[in-house]
Amino acid sequence: MAKREDIRNIGIMAHIDAGKTTTTERILFYSGRIHRMGEVHDGNATMDWMEQEQDRGITITSAVTTLSWKKRQINIIDTPGHVDFTAEVERSLRVLDGAVGVFCGVGGVEPQSETVWAQSERYNIPKIAYVNKLDRVGADFERVFKEIKQRLVENAVAIQFPLGKEADFEAIVDVIRGVAYYFDQEEYGSKMVAREIPAAAMDEYHLYRELLLDALSEVDDALMEKILEEEELSEAEIVASLRKATKNLQITPILCGSSLKNMGVRLLMDAIGDFLPSPVDKSEFLVLENGEQKSFAPRDDAPIVLVYKVQIDKHMGKLLYVRVYSGKVKKGDVLINRQTGKKEKIMRILQMHSNKTTDLNEVGYGDIATFVGPKDVETGQTLAGRGVSVELPKMNFPEAVISMVVEPQTKGDYDRLIGSLKRLAEEDPTFFVREDENSGQIVISGMGELHLEVLIYRLKSEFGVQANVGKPQVAYRETILNSAEYTEEFAREIKGKNHYAKVKVRVSGLMGGGSDDSQNKYESAVGVGSLTPEFLKAAEEGALGGCAAGPIFSWPVRGVKIELLEAQMKEGESSELAFSIAASTAVSRALSEAKATFLEPIVKAVVLSPEEYVGDIIADLNGKRGKVVDIQNLGVRQQVICEVPVSELFGYTTRLRNLSKGRALMSMEFLKYDLVPTKVKEAIIEKTRGY
Ligand code: GDP
Ligand code: MG
Known about the structure:
Number of strands: 37
Helix content: 25-40%
Bound molecules: guanosine-5'-diphosphate, magnesium ion
Strand order of the largest sheet: 18-17-23-14-15-22-19-20
Largest sheet: 8 strands, antiparallel
Radius of gyration: 29 Å
Shape: globular
């Protein structure tokens, strides 16, 4: 096991095309993890191992890769840059200790880089920035450096700057060490030589060095005194001071290079080790004990592990991507799933290198690894040692807001289709599959159009199932506005045995009157005694199951309270099956007698925009049934928070781009379900019937 202080758990965040994959390839090459460089345009880059990523040239799934560099162990958790994959971004941010932001030296700070950067701010993740592609025509380090300071983080300091521009970009000046690095192109820049900084670049060097020392002395009193007394500062002193300031999110160091031309990536790897924190730098983490938050310091005798991702592998079965927060886990150990209370044996511990693996005997706190063995574990759950009474805070995933109908291309493929979709849903906590009882249709739902498209692609490429898909639609729910009662008696002979149950239920609508809570609720007026606990449980499950399909279009029902008013059993003839079916049927029938309508998903949209466009954006959102709830001035831009129905947001990204000349950006997350206005209800019915 690596020393804990030598571990770096990092993510690489970038706008699509900034060069994340190319940079990662270089990192893997220099660390000896790969021996041949794969280029993105050849379609064989190691990190882009999923087929559709190679197809689209973008990186979607968070693969993790472990490598070593100068005694340090670096775990890179790949972080996607597209908003449709927020769940992937969020879960990698949750387990990272630090991140590298990659920027294009030509494009600079694009709106999407702002989104991911802002997301990482919410998790207080220390970062360094790398300005890439400085060999390209139009590249300008100084401009991008200023943009980063203006739009992302005021306290950014350049610890490097380029010598020469565009095609003449020839070396990188190290502002801390006071040397210029030149790279040997023969071996992908593996040989790097330090030379004296050319006289012509000395003014620039002194300027950047002064900016760096000024920034440091503002946050480091000891260093300031030394500077005031004009003492010589050692390289180690500056590095230590900058490390501390980066870790405390007081300063963000900026580096530069050209990954494609093999310039600067090795220095970036040094900087990851020098400035980004190790797991030891955080001495405590947040846990829940009986629902209450408290701090917990890692302890050898208390293994606590977060499962941040689940993947089904064709050969190994269920892979659990984990981060160990406390204690040690050995191969063969039995841990308890804190959410289910079940024991789970860790059969294998793996270190992942993109799509290859190494077996480990043990992992300790701070490690990121992959477990094989546990079956009954989902994303976000905590595995812990016996006697550990805490769990890690849940990972929150937004609800699906877009759905579409899927059907097999050949009838015989139905079972394979549904089976494959269910497996994909097991891996992805934001993807859902449902079989519509009445129409027999399969409906899938997820976070956005691209999200569903990618899953359909995987269906074909990984499972070999061809499917026809319908148009993406808003994932509406059904609900009722008043209440209704229904009595159902079930009496049938099944396989020579009698099954009997009689129940009376009442359903009432909970939505409206300002209620935001669209969960279904269940109450029983029937006590244990008149019914066995097993029959009561079966009735409850049946009743809630009766909400799976609503009376209008068989969409799931939400925001309903169900009461079991009466229940009757017959000695020797009643069964759980009978109570479950009777309750389910009674609820279905009661729902169709109540006044039904739709619920629509509402998202919380956060728009960031330069002030000059804010007026137009708000006017536009108001026209889309949006409710602006907050406007804040964030210095370089304004933040507008707005609640908007998903149905109004198809194609909104393009619209926002036009409204703001590409300067505004938006992120959104599911907020709640809300009753639809009458006009919208009629429109939904018309559209769905005519479909
Ligand atoms: P990602 O989308 O962030 O993963 O970006 P990629 O690594 O896939 O790079 C996008 C494109 O930019 C590819 O065609 C790369 O070859 C190219 N590219 C990456 N880094 C550089 C660089 O430093 N200089 C130049 N000129 N092109 C680069
Ligand atoms: Mg990529």
